[in-house]
Fold:
Amino acid sequence: MGVTDQLKLVLASGSPRRLALLNQVGIEPDLLMPADVDESPERGELPRRLAQRLAVEKGRIVAARAREAGLEAVILSADTVVAVGRRILPKPDLREEAEECLRLLSGRSHRVFTGVCVVGRKGRDHTRLVETRVRFKRLSRAEMDDYLDCGEWRGKAGGYAIQGIAGSFVVKLVGSYTNVVGLPLIEAVGLLSGEGYPVRAGWAELAQ
Structure:
């Protein structure tokens, strides 16, 4: 039995965006296993450290669950944080939270950090932290209201999804686009490859 048959990939996330990004490059996780962690920042914690810490916590939690289930697998986890300066923006569930995010983002630059973690078969974790700078145009009151009405912001870091309607707000992006979507592909694929996962096995099917 070859590596492809034996080695499983578990995505420690229920995010359809992260799954779609992996599928885009021919990777299909064997299991989706979201990790339930408290995503609140620690006192004085900076955005970059929060993204990396949560990615590692998610990966380790799911790796432990996989081991308990007797599953030989590589675990991929990630966490995305949007920040204006040192201020970490929430993943809003309430309209008022989303409106505050839009006010902070309107006409300004912000940073998107994603921590990526791969836990290998031997239980060791390897991480990367990716940063992208994004600038929004100045939003009118009508644009804010219409965006808030559409509900796309719900549960998204910083209250927006760049691959959706909010993509029309972006004036400039410096760095990885897939990082802003939620999973920087170069880093994720590189980490998986380093753990022996056959990242190119699905390429032939994509070309058909």
